[in-house]
Design a protein that fits this description.
This protein is of the alpha/beta class and 310 residues long. It has three domains: 1-98 and 202-222, 3-Layer(aba) Sandwich (D-Maltodextrin-Binding Protein, domain 2); 105-189, Periplasmic binding protein-like II (D-Maltodextrin-Binding Protein, domain 2, 3-Layer(aba) Sandwich), CATH 3.40.190.10; 223-310, 2-Layer Sandwich (Double Stranded RNA Binding Domain). The protein is 35% helix and 25% strand. The protein has eleven helices and 13 strands. It has helices spanning 13-29, 43-46, 52-55, 63-70, 129-138, 151-160, 170-175, 212-218, 224-240, 283-297, 299-309, and strands at residues 3-10, 33-40, 76-80, 92-96, 105-109, 123-125, 143-145, 165-169, 186-189, 203-208, 248-255, 258-266, 273-280. The strands form three sheets. The chain has a five-stranded mixed β-sheet with strand order 2-1-3-10-4, with helices on both faces. Helix 9 (224-240) runs parallel beside helix 10. It is globular and about 60 Å long. The protein starts with a strand and ends with a helix. Pfam families: Porphobil_deam, Porphobil_deamC. Its EC number is 2.5.1.61. Belongs to the HMBS family.
Length: 310
């Protein structure tokens, strides 16, 4: 007898592409299972005229999906990991993290081809405080202007509005096969210029802790190195109690079984800037250590100050 599995996904083109990729991978291993997508509109999808940092709160793109999981309207959900709060709702767990896509950010230009070539005061489109703060740290003269919408919407705004460049995640561009379609010049921003968001480039497949059938199925998609790296990053984020309203970045890599975690906290204008790099073997211990070092440098004062003024 065929069993049907309902998969929750945001309605955006990227989210659906990611969800269909996960289903295709599972279908190869479990041909007897029937998969169906339940499209869910989240708060983050509904509010498009305000930057995410001003909307505030955690789980802007996952709360409604988690509700559907808890209410058993869906069996598992596919998220972009960077959208998933460091604290999951009760009764839920990350069932798998597939192999991570490129975690870097991409700067797409209207006319020039390098960050250094942008004129003084050039307008950069991004609604991410993390991206804005790091770009301002490198180029304090830049003007940051909020931009929201899907990939194609932002690329159209780059051409039609007063942007000199916009920032997008490489992972989304690659998953949507957009890199070959972009007519403008672009560069991948190395970590020395723009450290990625926690979990960027990774997918989170979330399920109920009580659903052992789904858990046993999802474990086939687990990538151990991605799990180790993202666990370190998310431990860092949780220890700093950070969200999209704070310029926090974190990226971990695994080399020869050794973890390296880079963590960053900045003021919105990029003038106060703390960064730590450390190696270790235990992802949670490493995340806590980097967070504590950032706190000792003054990260907590930045975070609290932004919350008080928010």
């Amino acid at each position: 007898m065929t069993r049907k599995i309902i998969v929750g996904s945001r309605r955006s083109q990227l989210a659906l592409t990611q969800t269909k990729w996960v289903i295709a991978k599972l279908q190869e291993q479990f041909p007897e299972i029937s998969f169906e997508i339940e499209e869910i509109v989240t708060k983050g999808d509904r509010i498009l005229d305000v930057t995410l940092s001003k909307v505030g709160g955690k789980g802007l793109f996952v709360s409604e999906v988690e509700d559907a999981l808890i209410e058993q309207r869906i069996d598992f959900a596919v998220h972009s990991m960077k959208d998933v709060p460091s604290e999951l709702a009760d009764g839920l767990m990350i069932g798998a993290m597939p192999k991570r896509e490129n975690p870097l950010d991409c700067l797409i230009f209207k006319d020039v081809s390098h960050l250094e070539e942008l004129a003084e005061g050039a307008v950069i489109g991004t609604s991410s405080l993390r991206r804005a703060a790091q770009l301002l740290h490198k180029r304090p003269d830049l003007t940051i202007k909020p931009i929201r919408g899907n990939i194609d919407t932002r690329l159209r705004k780059l051409q039609e509005e007063d942007f000199d460049a916009i920032v997008l995640a490489v992972a989304g561009l690659k998953r949507m096969d957009w890199l070959d379609k972009i007519e403008q010049k672009y560069v991948f921003l190395e970590e020395t210029i723009c450290l990625p968001a926690v979990g960027q480039g990774a997918l989170a497949i979330e399920c109920r802790t009580s659903d052992t059938f789904v858990q046993e199925m999802l474990v086939n998609l687990q990538d151990p190195e991605t799990m180790l790296a993202v666990t370190a990053e998310r431990t860092l984020l949780k220890a700093l109690d950070g969200g999209c309203e704070i310029p926090i970045a974190g990226h971990a890599t695994v080399r020869n079984g050794q973890l390296e975690l880079k963590g960053l906290v900045s003021s919105v204008d990029g003038k106060t800037f703390y960064q730590i790099t450390e190696q270790g073997n235990d992802p949670k211990a490493l995340g806590l250590s980097v967070a504590n070092q950032l706190i000792e440098l003054g990260a907590k004062e930045i975070i609290q100050g932004l919350r008080d003024n928010g």
